């Protein structure tokens, strides 16, 4: 009898918890619930099919994939091998495993982009997206030169023949890292503009450029591109840093803000852009084609008992330590007239190591020296929690970085996902 009672109590508790999660409007990022470990889930997954990259390719790998429900094709990018890959799913059968490696077709985008765009040198493919009406496929292509404009290739899709037509190329900002459609004829790209050669002056006495980050808006109907950058915010740099927007010391917002990922409202009118390294979100009014604001995401208190983290193999709190959320992927959720932004809080350093810095650059770290920082905005520190001491923890360096909270050790990432409520009133 006792076992049956406990079972019903557990079922009631589970039902109440599920209903609470369904109606709860938002978790504040700073009020994370206690973590749960090894909790059984209700999502059962079975491997049904697989596409493998060429096993003879030493570095090839797929990064981004999207699906077209009209023609049952999955599209992926293999940037290292400069390939757009299309894999058919229409032959899949439930309960039967399929190897799709021989069924895919590939387009060499390096060759096609260079032949169609005089002077363009291929660097990488970073993103792929299908329009809502499944009529177009867009692919982001970075240039070889770190300070050169990128391209977005837009292919017409023939869903009846499962084929892609001849692409139209649009010149966008520097280092397009992600593309997304806001409607059937409007496309946005997050142009990261990373300072891949570091900062300052190189050994030849040349000033090293930090490219401008931007958001490009492509209109397929008029075949035009409007590149939005952050120059208007340069005069507000101090206010941005005071609010918690992380920036490299001495760098203006126009070059230091680096768009990483975009999510778009259901009506296609507003876009929200993750500025990952800056721990911030930019808001873009798609209709007026303007960047309206940049908001800092704050920091996660790692001394809070609900926010224990693994640094030495066990979950601990660390006094005086916080995490900068620094999301990579973000997604919009709209309910009852309210907009929420879901963020995957990866964390990311400005990874400009001695292997890519100009020779002799003073900020170049030694990747073989475990006691020094490898990246330009990184500082390795020792953290303690009771009797536990953890050495060489990667943290943000306050000597090279603005926007950090005073007297706090700031770690990369939130080790979490968060839900932020969008305040349209400013």
Compact overview of the structure:
Helix content is 10%, strand content 39%. It has helices spanning 2-23, 109-116, 237-243, 253-256, and strands at residues 49-50, 65-68, 73-78, 83-88, 98-99, 105-108, 122-130, 136-143, 149-158, 163-164, 168-174, 176-183, 186-191, 214-219, 224-229, 247-248, 261-264, 270-275, 280-285, 290-296, 299-301, 309-310, 315-316, 321-324, 330-335, 338-345, 378-385, 388-396, 401-402, 409-412, 416-421.
**Structural class of the helices, strands and pairings?**
mainly beta
Distance between the termini: 58 Å
Helix content: under 10%
- Number of DSSP strands? 31
In one word, what is the shape?
globular
For the biggest sheet, the summary is: 5 strands, antiparallel
Average per-residue pLDDT, rounded, comes to: 85
Radius of gyration: 23 Å
Low-confidence stretches: 1-35, 353-363
Q: Which strand-content bin applies to the residues?
A: 35-45%
Task: Give an overview of the whole structure.
This protein has 426 residues and is mainly beta. 10% of the residues lie in helices and 39% in strands. The protein has four helices and 31 strands. The strands form ten sheets. Strands 7, 8, 9, 10 and 11 form a five-stranded antiparallel sheet that branches. A four-stranded antiparallel sheet has the order 2-3-4-6. A four-stranded antiparallel sheet has the order 12-13-14-15, with no helix packed on it. The longest helix is centred in the first third of the chain and has 22 residues. The chain is globular and about 65 Å long. The N terminus is likely disordered.
